[in-house]
Amino acid sequence: MVDVTNRRSTVIKRLVIVVIAICAVAAGFFMFQSITSPAKAVANQKNSVQFASEQPKVEMKKVAPEKYNGQVRKVVYLTFDDGPSEFQKEILDILKKNDIKGTFFMIGGNIPAYKESVKRLVKEGNYPGVHSMTHNYTKLYKEGKFVEEMKQAQDIMKEVTGIHPNLVRCPYGSMPGLTQALRDQMASAGMKEWDWTVDSLDWKLPGNPNGVTQNVVSHVNKEREVVLMHEKKQTVQALQTIIDDLRKKGYEFEVYDEADHFPLNFWHDNRI
Ligand SMILES: [Zn+2]
Q: Is the pTM of this model over 0.70?
């Protein structure tokens, strides 16, 4: 009996020594890692702005969409610029019928004439982004009134809907007009800007809704796409087919969410 007890205690002692040794090696490894980790070096780097010429394509910085039932989700954001207009009601009707929410970028000066439509847009879960007051390239970019105009449009939106939208879209896109100085002003104001990944070119195609559909559906291929459209008659005419065809391609539809922002500007400026 004594012999067995001694043997047992020897085994336990050896086990304890092995466990302590493993812990010591692991602790040493993690300490070494934390000192030399490249992730730490990257985190300490200053976030420098890259020129578009250095990065030819817009890359979305957000982590790729989560998998769902083992499948990667394919998501598309439908965006509508230059409203509110006489076509907004029909766009909202189609979105509602399909249980889809859209992201709108509206011109401040147009809002007062379509107050009820814009209120409905918000009530139905669509995002009320803004798109300047004048839509004038010279005023916005050459005279540097961009942030001032966007703030005015935000204030009008707030007055009508109670929402002060942080996301704006640059008339004509952010390249080349939205200079570093303007982006600095935006960053200080907490303003974000979305360009797009697919351009429907709908404004060029009056009377040709099939052309609009084709421009969108043939170019939507990545896991996450943001489609630029406008409040135009041909867009209204194309919208149901666009939705049907994108669904057939396995896409789901999402609306912009400030809590879930990801940068999407042609300058690759991650501050906005
Ligand atoms: Zn526009």
A: yes
